[in-house]
Design a protein that fits this description.
By secondary structure, the chain is α+β, with helices and mostly antiparallel strands. It is built from 13 helices and 15 strands. The chain has helices at 4-9, 11-19, 27-63, 69-74, 78-102, 139-145, 151-158, 167-187, 201-207, 233-237, 295-312, 359-364, 389-399; strands spanning 121-126, 149-150, 164-165, 191-192, 198-199, 227-228, 244-245, 252-261, 280-290, 317-321, 333-341, 346-355, 367-369, 376-378, 380-388. The strands form four sheets. It has an eight-stranded mixed sheet. The longest helix is centred in the first third of the chain and has 37 residues, at 27-63. It binds one RNA strand through residues 38, 41-42, 44-46, 48-49, 51-52, 54-60, 62-63, 68, 71-72, 74-76, 78-79, 224, 244, 365, 373-376.
RNA sequence: GGAGAGAUGGCUGAGUGGUCGAAAGCGCUCCCCUGCUAAGGGAGUAAGGGCUAAUACCCCUUCGAGGGUUCGAAUCCCUCUCUCUCCGCCA
């Protein structure tokens, strides 16, 4: 959520920033509502004040044994009037809040302008795409010919966008997850967490998936429904909900491995074949909770932590800074890590690292106590994939494929696979 | 699933219709005293929101959540959630 005060006082500046995303904010409609809100709220609070002081007087009079009948008569109409005002105010506030919850985050100044992913700006590259002395296959062909990827079997059970992995490949995914968690906890200062995969709506409102992107989520049919997490960012970031941290408790760094569930509504026809885009995939997530003035630096570090994984796996990748039209709803700046896929001969997203500023913490009331003023202030939240295990597995299959159709095991994963060198 | 108890400020814990945003204690901050330490004295110490140039006044809201009764609710009524104890069941 954007600071309501800023929205009120600098509405056109906010609108201008949002327009960089291609987001059209109806300034006039908002200002009209806001004007009504102001007078109605002031009015209502005055009425409440009147009611409160009258009631106190009645109390005093009664205590002194005076006749309170005339006092009661004087406040007779107040109640109805107040009730009417409160109802109108409530309606107006909900309307405003709905608007505010639907506004994306303000962009950082150094986010490049652009419409869509074609305008993203490459920041740096690491590694050289491998040259094979045979025709490179994609992960589907490799996996199916080895009998390690079972798409049809999965679709019999669960439909499209699911996969079953077998034997060495299933084990390699587990090794990959172990390797990533170990690296982040022992070298990058993250604390490992085990978190719920089912969450309630307020957690998703906190991180920004709700109310706007409900159609992207899986939802249970309980009376108070659960949602399957689309990323561990949701439970990890919500650890800070309603917390006021002492200054010396920050920064906090959390990592978790979880499955992620996405309905992929609206992506029909995209990546329908293979394991790129699934309803369920494994990911190791990184989340940081930091003081406001350190988040820009933290984003660079967090991105580096994800990069370390790809470097150790010796997978060529590039880092792109997402352009204004491609930065996600809750982020003010995002770096994507794109890994080289020989089967597609292009770079594909494998990690997305974002600084959300105070956007999420305002929704969650996640704060720290300012050591100088003693006052609570919103913290900044960051998240990034460190990295998506399913896609990392694809990258390994395609980059480590051999002429005979088998896959070499990256050196750093071998200790996690009992020394196995090939699958 | 059955039976019972509970939810109040950073913590402990009073408070069954009015002057209670809330006693007291602890903790914390500042000041005083004491040549260190210990002890003692005094003051302060919730969050959100509105108004505002303001982190100044003033006002509103908040005693697990949501409804209700009332001029007035931490206190009375209803619903829900969570925690604890015992029994059953289970990983």
């Amino acid at each position: 959520m954007i600071d309501p005060k800023l929205l009120r006082q600098s509405t056109t500046d906010v609108a201008k920033n949002l327009s960089r995303r291609g987001f059209d904010f109806d300034v006039d409609a908002y200002l009209a509502l806001e004007e009504r809100r102001k007078s109605l709220q002031v009015n209502t609070e005055n009425l409440r004040n009147e009611r409160n002081s009258s009631s106190k007087n009645i109390g005093k009079a009664k205590a002194q044994g005076e006749d309170i009948a005339p006092l009661l008569a004087a406040v007779k109409d107040l109640g109805d009037k107040l009730e009417e005002n409160e109802a109108a105010l409530q309606a107006l506030l909900s309307e405003l809040q709905a608007i505010e919850l639907g506004l994306p985050n303000l962009l950082d100044d150094d986010v490049p302008d652009g419409r869509d992913e074609d305008d993203n700006v490459e920041v740096r590259r690491w590694g050289e795409p491998v040259k094979f002395d045979f025709e490179a296959k994609d992960h589907i062909e490799i996996g199916e010919s080895l009998g390690l990827l079972k798409f049809e079997a999965a679709s019999k059970i669960s439909g499209s966008r699911f996969v079953i992995m077998r034997a060495g490949l299933a084990r390699m995914q587990r090794a990959l997850i172990q390797f990533m968690l170990d690296t982040h906890t022992s070298e990058h200062g993250y604390e490992e967490a085990y978190v719920p995969y089912l969450v309630q709506s307020q957690a998703l409102v906190g991180t920004g998936q709700l109310p706007k992107f409900e159609e992207d989520l899986f939802k249970t049919t309980n009376e108070t429904p659960f949602y399957l997490i689309p990323t561990a960012e949701v439970p990890l970031t919500n650890l800070a909900r309603d917390v006021i941290y002492e200054a010396d408790q920050l920064p906090l760094r959390y990592t978790a491995h979880t499955p992620c569930f996405r309905s992929e509504a609206g992506s029909y026809g995209q990546d329908t074949r293979g394991m790129i885009r699934q309803h369920q995939f494994e990911k190791v997530e990184l989340v940081q909770l930091v003081a406001a003035d350190t988040s820009a630096q933290a984003l660079e570090e967090l991105t580096g932590h994800a990069e370390t994984i790809l470097q150790r796996l010796e997978l060529p990748y590039r880092v792109v800074s997402l352009c204004s039209g491609d930065v996600g709803f809750g982020a003010r700046k995002t770096y994507d890590l794109e890994v080289w896929l020989p089967g597609q001969e292009r770079y594909r997203e494998i990690s997305s690292c974002s600084n959300c500023g105070d956007f999420q913490s305002r929704r969650m009331q996640a704060r720290r106590r300012n050591p100088d003023s003693g006052k609570p202030e919103l913290i900044h939240t960051l998240n990034g994939s460190g990295v998506a295990a399913g896609r990392a597995l694809i990258a390994i299959m395609e980059n480590y494929q051999q002429a005979d159709g088998t896959i070499r095991v990256p050196a750093v994963l071998r200790p996690y696979m009992g020394g196995t060198e090939t699958v």
